[in-house]
Design goal:
The complex is a heterodimer.
Chain A lengths: L1 E9 L4 H14 L3 E6 L9 E9 L11 E6 L2 H7 L3 E10 L13 E5 L1 H6 L7 H12 L5 H11 L8 H14 L2
Parallel strand pairs in A: 1-4, 4-5, 5-6
Antiparallel strand pairs in A: 1-3, 2-3
Helix pairs in contact in A: 1-5, 4-6
Chain B lengths: L16 E5 H12 L3 E4 L6 H10 L8 E4 L3 H13 L4 E5 L1 H6 L1 H9 L5 E6 L15 H6 L9 E3 L4 H18 L3 E6 H5 L1 E5 L9 H7 L23 H21 L3 E4 L6 E4 L3 H15 L4 E6 L1 E3 L3 H8 L4 E6 L5 H9 L5 E5 L8 H11 L6
Parallel strand pairs in B: 2-3, 2-4, 4-5, 5-7, 6-7, 10-11, 10-13, 13-14
Antiparallel strand pairs in B: 1-8, 6-12, 9-11
Helix pairs in contact in B: 1-2, 1-7, 3-5, 11-14, 12-13
Classes of the chains: A alpha/beta, B alpha/beta.
Chain lengths: 178, 375
């Protein structure tokens, strides 16, 4: 098993931390993991992306030409990464703020309305967990239980009162996919 | 993949397996090594070294000193002072900051002092960018300051090696009384991977340091003459003798400490040479080329100084050509040509200024220089 994923959107959407939780869940699942951010002078409103690789074999390059799965959260990222999904791969995008929908027909394209779904939740900060819930429903790379365990590791103990909200957001994302 | 490959190795999960950035791994590994002090000044892309040390507060547990100095020049001279007392001390910075440290690094080498300097390279020259680069290869391997000297230079490719090379760097530095450098790049500094942290080791006691480092300036015992630490020698004949002693040490290191890792080299028609995280990009390119029947191998120097000359010459002897891939305009290619006496066609592929090539670009570069490889 090897899954090469790009998650791309605006800074502030939780792109990097979503990738981190995914990587941590992979570690809990005893997979090899690599988390490579497009680090830079990025900030809220700028673009941000992260490459996450999960594999049961040692991982060579953290830098990739093409991806099995692209999770796209804004128009700039769609323009940049649509062509870089492997044939037969999966492109998941949030329709919010997308003016030109993806055109490829040789890949699976899944539209999720995660931003709208997040409006129903208490906290807009749960957005990335809604997206992660949808991703795992479309591509069950790792069990959601491993994500729960990862959240307990990544979120500091003093904030464990927020675990419930994160679980709720993951379920909300899962329910977007049917 | 050959049996000696581990990029990165399979790791069984337990409490010591952690997910962290390369920069964070350096901080954890230093505390666990029993390091006595860190002096540094923040600069992207390595600020997490200082930040992690501050967050872990080792001064409350092991007694390790962590100090944000007023500048890189102050940092390296604090390392000079600490090392002169036999303490295991280090600093870290990124390219422009390392340039500021060159005078102090020359003094540390001249003082024959064990110390560790970490350079997480970014694009230059000048203040440049904050993105990954390998353009400080010449500076690191030739001795960037004045005078005839070397640092032992280690090039990590994984977060695991970022942790492991802290201990290796200090061990080599103390073994040879020569400073060592970890020459990393922004990729391996910023990326997160699994890492197994080394076990905790207590800091050495003053008595242990006095035994291990009889040259150290630790305060004079009544029974011996004072130890003096100076790099100034007004008598040229004595200074030449000092230089001859330094060179003997460097020859000994060159004979015994060159390290590299090879992949798919046994049957390779063509060879790629790359260090640090770029070697991993090349490994993926090679795996994709091998799937098409193109026999390419990889040599990854782990020590950049001493360069693994013999190992490279041995492999190059049965290959038709060599591509040296670096995040610079062509620096390590000099060492590759020297190691092989220019006996096989040798080309360079590199990106500059903080741009990182994809595996596909590496494969395209190899095939553009060696089009017959595709036949």
């Amino acid at each position: 098993m090897k899954e090469e994923i790009i998650i791309a959107g605006f800074g502030g959407q939780g792109v990097l931390s979503m990738g981190k939780i995914l990587a941590y869940a992979g570690l809990i699942d005893n997979l090899e993991v690599t988390w490579m951010p497009s680090y830079g002078p990025e900030q809220r409103g700028g673009t941000a992306n992260v490459t996450v690789i999960l594999s049961d074999e040692p991982i060579s390059s953290p830098v990739l030409d093409t991806y099995d799965t692209a999770v796209i959260l804004n128009q700039q990222s769609l323009d940049k990464f649509e062509s870089r999904v492997k044939p037969g791969g999966t492109l998941i995008y949030d329709s919010y703020g997308i003016h030109h929908a993806p055109q490829r027909t040789d890949i699976t394209v899944k539209r999720i309305d995660a931003m709208e779904a997040t409006f129903d939740l208490k906290s807009s900060k749960s957005y990335n967990m809604v997206v992660l819930g949808a991703l795992l429903a479309i591509k069950p790379i790792i069990p959601v239980e491993s994500v729960y365990a990862a959240l307990r590791k990544v979120i500091p103990e003093r904030h464990h009162n927020l675990l419930g909200a994160n679980h709720e957001a993951l379920a909300k994302g899962r329910d977007l996919v049917s | 993949m050959e049996s000696n490959s581990n990029v990165p190795g399979k790791i069984t999960p337990d409490d010591n397996v952690r997910l962290m950035k390369g920069n964070e791994a350096i901080a954890h590994a230093a505390i666990r090594y029993g390091c006595d002090g860190y002096f540094g000044y923040p600069i992207t892309p390595q600020s997490e070294v200082l930040e992690t040390l501050e967050a872990l507060m080792p001064w409350e547990t092991t007694g390790m000193v962590v100090l944000q100095a007023e500048s890189e020049i102050a940092s390296i001279n604090m390392v000079y002072g600490g090392a002169a007392t036999g303490k295991a001390v280090f600093t870290s910075s990124s390219s422009p900051g390392i340039s500021l440290m060159q005078e102090g690094m020359s003094y540390i080498a001249a003082g024959e002092l064990p110390a560790l300097v970490v350079n997480v390279m970014r694009g230059g020259p000048g203040l440049g960018t904050i993105q990954p680069s390998q353009a400080d290869y010449w500076q690191a391997t030739r001795g960037g300051g004045h005078g005839d000297y070397h640092f032992i230079v280690l090039a990590p490719a994984t977060v695991q090696e970022m942790a492991d090379f802290v201990g290796l760097g200090f061990d080599l530095a103390f073994k040879y009384r020569t400073p060592a450098m970890i020459l990393a790049d922004g990729i391996v500094g910023q990326m997160m991977e699994k890492v197994v942290l080394p076990p905790f080791r207590p800091r050495r006691t003053d008595e242990e340091i006095a035994r291990q480092c009889p040259w150290a300036v630790t305060g004079r015992a009544a029974s011996r003459k004072p130890n003096v630490m100076t790099t100034l020698e007004l008598d040229s004949a004595t200074m030449e003798q000092n230089n001859e002693r330094f060179q003997r040490t460097y020859r000994l290191i060159a004979e015994n400490e060159s390290r590299c890792q090879t992949y798919y080299t046994d049957d390779a028609d063509y060879l790629i040479v790359a260090f640090g995280s770029v070697a991993r990009i090349c490994l993926k390119a090679i795996e994709e080329m091998r799937a098409k029947g193109i026999k390419v191998g990889l040599l990854r120097p782990i020590t950049l100084w001493p360069f693994p000359q013999k190992q490279l010459a041995g492999i190059a002897a049965h290959t038709k050509g060599m591509l040296v891939v670096e995040l610079n305009a062509g620096q390590m290619i000099d060492d590759c040509r020297l190691a092989t006496d220019c006996s096989i066609p040798t080309f360079h592929f590199g990106r500059m200024g903080g741009i990182v090539p994809n595996p596909g670009e590496v494969a395209d570069a190899l095939l553009s220089h060696f089009p017959e490889a595709a036949n």
